[in-house]
Amino acid sequence: MKKELLPSILLTVVSIVFFSGIYSLIIWAIAQMAPNKGEGFVINANGKKYYENIAQKFTADKYFWSRPSAVDYNAAGSGGSNKGPSNPDYLADVQKRIDTFMAHNPGIKKSDIPSDLVTASGSGLDPDISVPGALVQVKRIASVRHIPKDKVEHLVADNIDKPLLGILGPEKVNVLKLNIALDQLNK
């Protein structure tokens, strides 16, 4: 029994020291080499601190709307709804989002609404929307803010994030940065 007990206690102690201390220090050291030293991408606007890589809730008509969130934009617990595309509750949620979007964007046809504006991401915290997702909202925002439509379209074009290395991923728009730029436009 002593032959098995001592090695298992030793392995436990070594594992605790390695995974609780050494491994944590290695990850912390790697984070220190990352942009912002692993603290996330912080934006200070209007006297508040925001993280550009975490979705914010925008529902006012004067702003570009974010992608829906299954966790109500709570960064403490990201996650999807785990409902499949044939789930009746999921389909009802999507239809409700479509109806809400169409009510706030008169003249938009259901077929013109990009899927990312009515479906939540896997994490529920996706800070980006597609370029078509931003452009379909331009008319509403221009009307509410009394800004020429082409000026809002140019603002969207100026805030498009290109794919990594020009080929990895789609073009996208960070909703927080776009809305901050939109507020700056009105000043």
Provide an overview of this structure.
The protein is mostly helical. The protein contains six helices and five strands, in the order αββαβαααββα. The strands form two sheets. Strands 3-5-4 form a three-stranded antiparallel sheet. The protein has a two-stranded antiparallel sheet with strand order 1-2. A hairpin with a 2-residue loop joins β1 and β2. The radius of gyration is 22 Å and the shape is elongated. The termini are far apart.
Topology (SSEs and partners):
Blueprint: H1 2-33, E1 42-45, E2 48-51, H2 88-104, E3 128-130, H3 131-135, H4 138-145, H5 149-158, E4 160-161, E5 172-174, H6 175-185
Helix pairs in contact: 4-5
Discrete helix count: 6
Structural class: mainly alpha
Unreliable sequence segments: none
User: Cα distance, first to last residue?
Assistant: 77 Å
Biggest sheet: strand arrangement: 3-5-4
Proportion of residues in extended strands = 5-15%
Question: Helix-strand pattern, N to C?
Answer: HEEHEHHHEEH
